[in-house]
């Protein structure tokens, strides 16, 4: 018989997985062209020869799959950063990771003619990694402290934002709309080619992150305690930061700068299942997927025939959530 805590966690996983499945089916069914649920299920089972099969399998299903993968990647990236920095307000934006990815992609779009869009996730990961390395090098002083990482990360984020704006202004005018749409954060137009590029990063680095959950739990006790328990603090911190950069960079490369999922999902996860990273990481992934599915569904349905980027809705929810966290910490 399961103990109460295990039973609660099992129920939580099942409930979150059910919500993802329900939202996915709803997203497949509704839109500019509504498709009956019976036809949706038939298409998924490979038994539908209707014209709607094209809409479901080639347009909507890749978009929904991308939302699940991107939401999970951003959420786990945020959870890892919050664990490494021991700051519940940390997110990939904070260390300049998403800023570095944005600069790299905008520069690639601006200076490379005839490029393949399938290279963008790799370019984004490279830019995110360079920004993280710069942060780590400047923060190093007989080791790296979370406080220095945050301070330097804020400076790098500001610099990357300015550089992105400069590239956008100085680049060809016809690229401005495309780049701005990408920077807003959208999974509109995502196809199976993007999924092929994205899923290996998610499939590799989320399980690897889960493998270091114990290390994050030890680091949450403080540096002195972690060293006393035999933690190789700087090495594990560097590895965890790399995992976070890889997940955030891959997500940004496909969908642009979708903000605040890396902040919100780990917080919601802690409220639901406690402070053990063995549970925070997988639950955060599920919650991140749910948040982005909801944001994309809202963008498709609320202002038809317009398709509003999902990043607009995550920012609209995340900014007040961030202010609430700041207010709460100030009162504490």
Strand content: under 5%
As residue ranges, the low-confidence spans are: none
Helix proportion: over 70%
How many β strands by DSSP?
0
How does the overall form come out from the CA principal axes? Answer: globular
Distance between the termini: 40 Å
Query: Which H/E pattern describes the elements?
Result: HHHHHHHHHHHHHH
Report the biggest beta sheet as strand number plus sense, adding barrel if it closes: none
Q: What is the SS-derived class?
A: mainly alpha
Q: Could you walk me through the main structural features you see in this protein, from its secondary elements to its overall organization?
A:
This protein has helices at 4-29, 37-44, 52-85, 97-111, 120-139, 146-170, 176-184, 192-211, 213-219, 223-228, 233-255, 261-273, 277-301, 310-331. With 332 residues, it is mainly α. Helix 3 packs across helix 12 (261-273) and helix 4 crosses helix 11. The longest helix is centred in the N-terminal third of the chain and has 34 residues, at 52-85. It holds the Pfam family FecCD. The chain crosses the membrane at residues 64-82, 94-113, 119-138, 150-177, 238-265, 277-298, 310-327. Belongs to the binding-protein-dependent transport system permease family. FecCD subfamily.
